[in-house]
Amino acid sequence: MNIRYILILYALLWCATRTLAQDKSVRASVLASEEVEKLFPSSVKAEHGIRFPVFRVYSYVDESGKHFCVLTESKDAQDSNGDVANNKIQAFLFNAGEVFLKKNGELSDQILGNESEEESIWFWTKYASFDDLDKDGIIDPILVYGTSALNGTDDGRVIITVQHKDVFYHIRHQNGILDDERHTNIDPAFYDAPKSIQEAIKGTIVAISNDEKAIFPYNWKEALKAKKTVWRE
């Protein structure tokens, strides 16, 4: 085995490792920029209300057909370090027909007002997943996004969203430096979702906590089990 072949093999392995580290989803592929431009020209964006620059597009397939998840970020601001920041984000979920796209889901959010001092909002793609969580043949996308404020993510927000049967369930967490600043709000309907979906969200919360991206109330597992819609310290 010559050295050139070894270097190429190492480079391919390195790229694959980076991709898996960024996105844990195993059922979805990330479209190249050329594919995105071809599938979503200006006319298609205008038709479906895609107003912000496309950050990433996922393609995935289940028993209902092929789908696209389009993540967009406004890139219309600067944070306190002078880096590009976002005031708003939008995500779009499409069913892909042979000649047209049908939108079957959309979510949007923005930084809060001046009192919160939030500086930017963006998608946390490391925690995105596209799996059939309840084994009904249909993918249940999980998307995560968050915000930063004067202390970065330490006093920003984290939002976890899962779509199941065209319904979005949200877990909204306010991070904070002090214990009494942190709280989590759960959509009441989330507890009606299949247990497997609730367990998947529990795993996402654990992953975010392990990465020290947020501190959830210390008793959140008990609160989840008790089906509480507000978690506090």
Automatic annotation (TrEMBL):
<protein>
    <submittedName>
        <fullName>M949_RS01915 family surface polysaccharide biosynthesis protein</fullName>
    </submittedName>
</protein>
<dbReference type="InterPro" id="IPR058148">
    <property type="entry name" value="M949_RS01915-like_dom"/>
</dbReference>
